[in-house]
Specification:
Layout (H helix, E strand, L loop, with lengths): L1 H5 L46 H5 L2 H6 L18 H21 L10
Length: about 110
Amino acid sequence: MPCAQSGRLSLLAVTSKERSAMLPDIPTMAEAGFPEIAITQWFAAFAPAGTPGEIARAPRGGLRQGPVRSDGARAPCGCCAGDRGRHTGRILASTYRGRRRVVAAGAGFGLGRN
């Protein structure tokens, strides 16, 4: 984070529930006085039905190490490998929570109905 390291940018908080390994001196939103704000980013990858298990599981090793950044270093991230049902449930729950917030704010959700 060159801008923060140079002092041109002040980092106030990270939005995850835990402090970032990449920014250990930056507090979480809860530590900064906003406990209701906790936002994490996550990704899921699904293989087509019938994909052999050893092929479907192959990317997990690299993901546990973290994605490769443009400078060649590994970016810290967590890997939550699991089964299809677990991830499908997480996607549906996240979509439902997001939809509730958008509708409560009076905005449309973009799925043709609110």
